[in-house]
Structure formats: C-alpha cells, structure tokens
C-alpha cells in the first residue's frame, strides 16, 4: 500500500508533494485515507500526467540517433509520401528509409509546423563517448612495419601526373593481379615485394588542405622538377609545404629524355633552396628519370623504400582502425562513398565507424583494383560504403565499438560544428567579402544557387567554383531549380552562404527570413554578371552597386486581347506604386518569366504617370504578351548605390 503513498508517487514523478496534490485535485481524483491513492487511481493519474506532457509538448518530434523519413512522418502523423514530396520541393531527394541529416529533417518538420528536437543524452553517455573515442596508446611490441604513403608534388607541367601513371604501369609490368584501376584517391604498387601507397591527387593543394584539417597522411613527398625547366614557383611552394610538415623529400628530376634537359642546373637551384642532393655532398636523394620514357622509375621506387626504412614506419594492426578520409562523394546509386586511408588498426566490413560528422557501418570495401575486400590494414587505401553522410577530405575516421556510439559521436560533432559555425561567422555578404578575406576570417565562400533551369545551375556552379584562389575557396553547397525558398535561406544561414538566384525570386516570406538572418541574396538575369560580381568582390573592386529598388507589386487579374494593340492586362496595385517609366519583372510561381519595360500604363482610358496601391490599372509590356491571370508584376527602378570605404 505504501507505494501508493502520495509522497512516494511524487518522488516517482520528480515533483513536490504540493504539486502532485494540486494535479490530483485538478484531475478530480480522490485522495484516500493515509494520503494514498487507490490502485486504479494510480494508473489513471499516470495516464493523465502522460497525456498532459504530450499536450504540453505540442508539435514536437523527438529524435534520437539517425533520422529517417519514415520515422519523422510517423511522429507527425503524416504519410511518408507527404514528407518525401516536401523534401523534393526543398531540393532533397529521399526514400522512405533513407537517413536524412538533422538540419534537413528539422526544416521539413518546420514546414509541417513541428519542431524537431534531439532526445537528451545523459551525461553518462557523453562521458562514455569521450572514453570510446580515445585512441589506445600502442605498446612498442604491438607495432609492426607498415608501407609508406607518398604524395607527388611539383610545378605544373613538370610531369606529376605522368610520373604517377608511369609508377602505376610499373606495377602492371611487375605482373600484379590485374583489374580495372579504380579511382579511390590512392593506388598501391609493389617493388621488390614491398608495398608503396601513392596518393593520386598530385600537387600540394590536397596535401596542404588535409594538413590544414589536422591530418597528416603523407610519409614521403616526391618533388618532381622538370630538367628542362628547373625550379619554378610551385616547386618552391612544394618544398616549403614538405618542410613545414616535416615530411622527407625525394627529388625526381624528370624529363631527362628532353634535349634541353640540364639536371645539374636543377641540382644547383635546389641547393639555393636548402636542398643539397647526395652527389653534391648533401643528404637529399635525387633520381634522374623520364616519366614519359619510363626511365629509372624503379630506381625512384627503390629510393622511396630506402627512405621509408630510415623513417621506421610502424603501426599496430590489431586494434580498432583509425585513419583519414582522402576524398568522399555522394554517388547516385551507392550513396555516400568515401576513400579512406587506414593508418593504424584494421578496418573490416561491418565495423561501426565515424568519419568527421558522418557515421555508419562499413557495408562494403573496395580496393584500388576495384575488388571487394573484407579487411584493410595499416597503409591501405579503400573505398568504403555505408556512411550516412558525406565526410570531407582530411576528416579523421575511427572505428567505434557499436553503431549507437558511432551515431552519437557523429551527432555530437555535427552540433559542435554547427555551434562553431554560428560562433565564428558573422554572416558573410558579397560586399564585405574582400575585407573578410584580407583579415583571413573567410577561407571558404559557400554559395547556394537557385535557377529557373538545371542547365543554369550547372553553368553557374562550374564558373563560380573556378574562381577559387589561394585566399578563398568557393563551394557551391547547394543548387536547385525553383524559387528561393525559406529553407534555402535557412540553409544559407546555417552554413554562412550567399544565395545567388538566376531568373528566380525569393518566395514571399523568405525575403523577411533572409533579412532577419542577415543572408545575402543576389538575383541576376545574366550569368556573366554574377561571375563578374563575384570576381570583383574577391578583388575588393566591387563596382558601385546598382540596386533595383522595388517601387511596388501589381497583380494581373484580367487579360484582354485587343487587335492591333496586343495583350493588355487589367491589374491591381497590391503594394507601393507603379510608374510609367518603371522597369518590370513578371513573376509566375516565383520564377521571373519576363524582365523589361512597360509599354502602357493606364487608368481607365487615360495614360497616367503612376498608379498607387489599392487602385486598378491597365498595363501592357514592350515586346511581351504571354501574361496570365495571377502573374505578379514587380515594378522597380535601378539606383546606383555608393560603396562606402571605411
Ligand atoms: P603535371 O602538370 O605536373 O601533372 O604534368 P603532366 O604529367 O601533365 O606533364 C606535362 C607535360 O609534360 C605532358 O605533356 C607530358 O607528356 C610531358 N612530360 C611528362 N613527363 C615527361 C618526360 O619525362 N619527358 C618528356 N619529354 N615529357 C614529359
């Protein structure tokens, strides 16, 4: 009986006795003798308290771990297809069982008027995660020899790609088991029975960007210098990058087959940059070779092994795998595909894994020959399938004890990343870009592109991404067809992106959100203008801005076809005013279908200079007749805005 004691029950619900008594009274439940409740009343009370919690929570969807379309649809009492449709409108394709990110799920829930929240993970769990993430220290006796991982660097056109090709060919000649070479970001060759791993992306950009993210994957760098060209600016950069990373260099003096080849001159120039080669009495190994004629390639590989031996590269293969993502992409058929380099431990199919902010279970592993493998030990590059999300090149991956831990860690990292992004970024605008670039506060310029046709999205994406330079990397984080929606703006806000629209407008409401979130939306009708603007902004030379100042919005309500005159619209001024000399944009479903001039503006039968809000008018357009009832005419004037220089 004592279990039904009010005091006891209050403790169960984590309330004070007074609170509970008030509730019991509110619910109209009778308190029996000795401050107790009857057995059936305890059950009733429990039911009512739960109901109350449900009501109070209102439209909240709680999630824990991975989020699927089905799960949130069920929680909101919607059909999965309704949710999928909404997602499609937001530019995300998803199937019922597909995992979607918290951000996307949150946006879609908002669309249905729900709030998405994460279930609280208890402190204990967090502690546990920290522990699980800790990478075990290796005992000297567990360490075994591992193959070297090599990056090829050097000036453009000095033969990096050719050398990598030549190296791969060596392997084929050596009679290794064939197969179609798969691009997984790295390839392996064997020389004298020893394995060497080559990272496939030549140049120091990849090397440096990984390092910038805290990943050190290269053990040895091969510096390619063309014997007919000598040390060039990127050669010097490569030397400096290798030095900064403390990675030993081997110099490949390439193109010795060329008539103008002068290896001695290269050696002399190297000495001027602090690299004294062996035959000059120094300790830098150099190999004179020809990638094209396949000369001395094996010698180079032998030298790599020699340096590797000196470096005593070792790892413990018998622990949970850890390594680095070399590159990753989203594949239509296979989902997230990540090329990873296992640096220690052994990665196996079925392992629960976290890579950056992505998590999952390794569903399949494919090696550089395109073959499926079941496990990959230290210094092995494999492509892995099964991650929920696309990690970034340079992200660390770790195998963890179970799926749940993987999910929790990934989620924790995601929220940390979001918080950091919010903290670090005062929102970017094109006008302030140069300033922020100079201060070094912007390294990445994220862009969202919305356009009326897919072709434009692609064209703009490619042109803009090409503008990336040493100071700033331009990333198109999202591109889609259709008007600029509120979810575009929220995505931009979350990832500190600028939105570029081509022949599209923000839908009503999204402009206000953009203003609130300080998201810069730029709309264009000509692609090259956008590129010019971006270029100018990056060099701090943004032209005096011409801004279109909207003067009013007019709705087309009737259409008259008048012979000899064309199509005339009976219209109503919704906001502001429209002027005879206004420029106009005709917008249908958020897409600009015409931009040009008015040809007539009338009140009744008279030509007028302007018509204000709340009045009807007659409109026709210069060289445009294809109007429909419901079209919105945006009237605007173009104004020059002085750019302020502080
Ligand atoms: P990368 O920009 O450093 O990757 O250079 P590539 O590998 O694309 O080579 C640039 C050009 O140099 C190509 O036309 C190659 O055919 C040529 N090339 C590369 N290696 C040699 C070589 O050993 N001898 C000669 N004659 N040409 C070479």
TrEMBL record:
Q: Which residues bind GTP?
A: 154-161, 200-204, 254-257
This protein's superkingdom? Bacteria
Q: Where is the Tr-type G domain?
A: 145-314
Molecular function terms, GO-annotated: translation initiation factor activity
Q: Write out the ranges of the annotated region (G-domain).
A: 148-296
Its keywords, alphabetically, are: Cytoplasm, GTP-binding, Initiation factor, Nucleotide-binding, Protein biosynthesis
UniProt key word Protein biosynthesis: yes
Q: Where in the cell is it found?
A: Cytoplasm
Do you know which HAMAP family this protein is assigned to?
IF_2_B
Give the UniProt family note: Belongs to the TRAFAC class translation factor GTPase superfamily. Classic translation factor GTPase family. IF-2 subfamily.
Function noted in UniProt: One of the essential components for the initiation of protein synthesis. Protects formylmethionyl-tRNA from spontaneous hydrolysis and promotes its binding to the 30S ribosomal subunits. Also involved in the hydrolysis of GTP during the formation of the 70S ribosomal complex.
This protein is called Translation initiation factor IF-2
């Amino acid at each position: 009986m004592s279990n039904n004691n009010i005091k006891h029950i209050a403790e169960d619900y984590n309330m004070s006795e007074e609170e509970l008594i008030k509730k019991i009274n509110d619910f109209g439940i009778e308190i029996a003798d000795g401050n107790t409740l009857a057995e059936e009343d305890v059950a009733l009370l429990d039911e009512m308290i739960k109901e109350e919690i449900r009501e109070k929570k209102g439209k909240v969807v709680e999630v824990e771990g991975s989020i699927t379309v089905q799960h949130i649809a069920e929680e909101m009492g919607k059909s999965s297809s309704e949710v999928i449709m909404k997602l499609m409108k937001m530019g995300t394709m998803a199937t019922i069982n597909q995992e979607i990110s918290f951000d996307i799920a949150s946006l879609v829930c908002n669309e249905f008027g729900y709030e998405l929240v994460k279930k609280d993970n208890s402190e204990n769990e967090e502690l546990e995660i920290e522990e699980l993430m800790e990478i075990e220290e290796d005992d000297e006796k567990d360490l075994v020899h591992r193959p070297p991982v090599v990056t090829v660097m050097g000036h453009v056109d000095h033969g990096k790609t050719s050398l990598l090709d030549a190296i791969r060919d060596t392997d084929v000649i050596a009679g290794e088991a064939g197969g179609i070479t798969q691009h997984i970001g790295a390839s392996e060759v064997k020389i004298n029975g020893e394995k060497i791993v080559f990272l496939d992306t030549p140049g120091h950009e990849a090397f440096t960007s990984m390092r910038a993210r805290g990943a050190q994957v290269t053990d040895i760098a091969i510096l390619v210098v063309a014997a007919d060209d000598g040390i060039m600016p990127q050669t010097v950069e490569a030397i400096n990058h290798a030095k900064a990373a403390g990675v030993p260099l081997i110099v490949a003096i390439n193109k010795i087959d060329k008539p103008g080849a002068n290896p001695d001159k290269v050696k002399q120039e190297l000495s001027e940059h602090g690299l004294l080669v062996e035959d000059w009495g120094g300790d830098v190994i150099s190999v004179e070779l020809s990638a094209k004629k396949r000369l001395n390639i094996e010698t180079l590989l032998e030298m790599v092994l020699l340096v590797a031996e000196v470096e005593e590269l070792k790892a413990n293969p018998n622990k949970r795998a850890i390594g680095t993502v070399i590159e990753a992409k989203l594949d239509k058929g296979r989902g997230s595909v990540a090329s990873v380099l296992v640096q220690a431990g052994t990665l196996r199919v079925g392992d629960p894994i976290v890579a950056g902010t992505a998590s999952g279970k390794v569903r399949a592993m494919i090696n550089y020959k395109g073959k499926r493998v079941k496990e990959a030990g230290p210094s092995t590059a494999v492509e892995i399938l099964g991650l929920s999300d696309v990690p970034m090149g340079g992200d660390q991956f770790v195998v963890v004890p179970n799926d749940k831990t993987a999910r929790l860690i990934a989620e924790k990292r995601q929220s940390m990343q979001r918080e950091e992004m919010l903290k670090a970024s005062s929102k970017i605008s094109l006008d302030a870009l140069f300033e922020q670039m100079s201060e070094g506060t912007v390294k990445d310029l994220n862009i969202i592109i919305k356009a009326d046709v897919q072709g434009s999205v692609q064209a703009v994406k490619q042109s803009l991404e090409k503008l990336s330079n040493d100071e700033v990397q331009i990333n198109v984080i999202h591109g889609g067809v259709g008007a600029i929606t509120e979810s575009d703006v929220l995505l931009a806000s979350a990832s500190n992106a600028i939105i570029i629209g081509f022949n599209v407008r923000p839908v009503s409401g999204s402009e206000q959100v953009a203003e609130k979130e300080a998201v810069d939306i730029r709309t264009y009708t000509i692609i090259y203008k956008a590129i010019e603007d971006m270029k100018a902004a990056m060099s701090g030379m943004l032209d005096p801005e011409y801004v279109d100042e909207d003067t009013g919005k007019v709705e087309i309500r009737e259409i008259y076809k008048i012979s000899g005159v064309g199509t005339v619209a009976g219209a109503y001024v919704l906001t502001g005013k429209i002027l005879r000399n206004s420029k106009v944009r005709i917008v249908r479903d958020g897409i600009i279908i015409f931009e040009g001039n008015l040809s007539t503006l009338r009140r009744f039968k008279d030509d007028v200079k302007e018509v204000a809000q709340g009045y009807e008018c007659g409109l026709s357009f210069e060289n445009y007749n294809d109007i429909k009832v419901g079209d919105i005419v945006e009237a605007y004037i173009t104004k020059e805005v002085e750019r302020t220089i502080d």
